[in-house]
């Protein structure tokens, strides 16, 4: 399968539309599945799938078979594109919320809110210190650094399932420490 996909990518790089159609037919379900797992929304997943294949059409010549398999290359593009969509959507939501908050008259005690926020932040920092060093590092990279499980695993030179376990266990301990149900 990998040889067939690699050969198709070589032909796609030369502008062969039939090769692109075959490549699409063989891989589109996986790309859509990856997008769907990350984005959940069907329409966003379809849009992302289309963008991924547009990128494949435009960048097939950049595929390096010595760096990895065609499917790994394609799924990396898919995952990155889906994560970019999530981040873009979150940024848009944050901007709208920030604008909405700044354009409203505030009828509450902002000093009280600030004190409450600081107390919550201090509680989180205190509870983070109860985690093991490996849990702390994994949680900080994922939640404060915005890295994916795979990126955390690469940075810490650990397996993805190990990182998932560290983060899950760390979050459970944080939840218990903070008294969140």
Distance between the termini: 47 Å
Q: Measured on Cα atoms, how large is the radius of gyration?
A: 22 Å
Give the full name of the CATH homologous superfamily of the largest domain.
Answer: RNA polymerase sigma factor, region 2, helix turn helix motif
The number of domains is: 2
Number of helices: 8
Q: β content, as a range?
A: under 5%
What coarse outline follows from CA principal-axis ratios?
elongated
Share of helix among residues? Answer: over 70%
What is the fold named in CATH at topology level of the largest domain?
A: Rna Polymerase Sigma Factor, Chain: A
Low-pLDDT regions:
none
Structural class: mainly alpha
Judging by the overall fold, what is the CATH architecture of the largest domain?
A: Orthogonal Bundle
Count of extended strands: 0
What is the highest CATH level, the class of the largest domain? Answer: Mainly Alpha
Describe the structure in your own words.
The chain contains eight helices and no strands. By secondary structure, it is mainly alpha-helical. It folds into two domains: 2-87, RNA polymerase sigma factor, region 2, helix turn helix motif (Rna Polymerase Sigma Factor, Chain: A); 112-178, Arc Repressor Mutant, subunit A. α5 packs across α8 (160-178) and α6 packs across α8.
């Amino acid at each position: 399968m990998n040889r067939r996909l690699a050969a198709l990518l070589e032909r796609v790089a030369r502008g062969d539309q039939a090769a692109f159609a075959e490549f699409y037919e063989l891989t589109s379900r996986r790309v859509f599945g990856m997008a769907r797992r990350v984005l959940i929304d069907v329409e966003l997943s379809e849009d992302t799938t289309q963008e991924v294949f547009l990128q494949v059409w435009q960048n097939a010549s950049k595929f390096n078979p010595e760096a990895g398999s065609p499917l790994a290359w394609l799924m990396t593009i898919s995952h990155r594109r889906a994560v970019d969509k999530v981040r873009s959507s979150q940024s848009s939501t944050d901007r709208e919320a920030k604008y909405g908050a700044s354009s409203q008259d505030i009828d509450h005690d902002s000093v009280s809110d600030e004190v409450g926020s600081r107390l919550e932040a201090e509680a989180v920092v205190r509870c983070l210190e109860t985690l093991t060093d490996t849990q702390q590092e994994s949680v900080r990279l994922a939640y404060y650094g915005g890295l994916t499980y795979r990126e955390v695993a690469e940075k810490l030179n650990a397996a993805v399932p190990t990182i998932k376990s560290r983060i899950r266990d760390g979050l459970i301990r944080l939840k218990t420490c903070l008294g969140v149900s």
